[in-house]
Amino acid sequence: MRTRKQELISDDLKPFVCAIIKEYREKYNYSLEDLSRALNYKKNRQTLHKYETGSLNIPYEIFFDIANIFNIDSEVFKEIPMTKGEKELFEKKMIRSYVSNMNGSRNITARGEKIINTYKNASYESVGKNCELSVKLLDDSMAPVYLKGDRVYFRKKDSYNNGDDVVLAVKGNVLSVRRIYKSQKVVVLQAMNPKYQTIVAGVFSDDMILGKVETLCRDIK
Length: 221
Known about the structure:
Elements: H1 14-27, H2 32-38, H3 45-53, H4 60-69, H5 84-102, H6 110-118, E1 122-124, E2 133-136, E3 151-155, E4 165-171, E5 174-182, E6 187-190, E7 199-201, E8 211-217
Antiparallel strand pairs: 1-2, 2-3, 3-8, 4-5, 4-8, 5-6, 6-7
Helix pairs in contact: 2-3, 4-5
C-alpha cells in the first residue's frame, strides 16, 4: 500500500533528515543491516540505503523510530530549517511517536537486546521515551541512595558528568550502579556504601558505561 504524501518527510526537509540518519548510524557503528534489525525489519537494508541517500522519501514513522533507536535529542531537530507549516507537522508526528513509546510499543534496539543477553540482572521494561532498559540491583553497594532489590532505569548518553550515577559491569556478568567522578588522570567510581570498595581507574572509557540512571522503582513492604 502506498504511503500518503502527508506521512512522508518533504523534499525540502529530506536532505537534513538523511544527513541526521547517516551521522548517527555511523556514530554508533551500525551497518544498514544492524539498523534494519533494530527496526524489527520493518524496512530492509536496501530501502534504508535509499532513505539515507535521499533517493526515496522517508516516512515520519520510520524516521522517529530511528531517532529513538539512537536516542537522538529533539534539540537536533530544531537545527533543521522549516516553514511554520512544516514545523507544525513535524512536531505533530514527533508527539505521536512519543506517545507510542510511552505506551510501550517501541521495539527494543539491537544494543538493548545484546545487554539483556549479556547481563543476568538486566531486562527490557520501558518507562517512556528516555529509558528502555532496567537493571535490578543485587547488592547494597549504593545504599542508602539505592537499595538491594531496587530496579533502576537507565539511558545511554554521549558523555557523562561528575556526580552522575551510571550503570556498568563492576564484576562478571552482573550490572551495578556507581557514582562517577573524572579528572585528567583518573576516573573514580564511588560506591556509596562504605563496606564496598570505590574503584579508581587510570584507564577508562565512557564506552564501558551502559547508561545513566534516570529513575528507579522500589517495592514498599
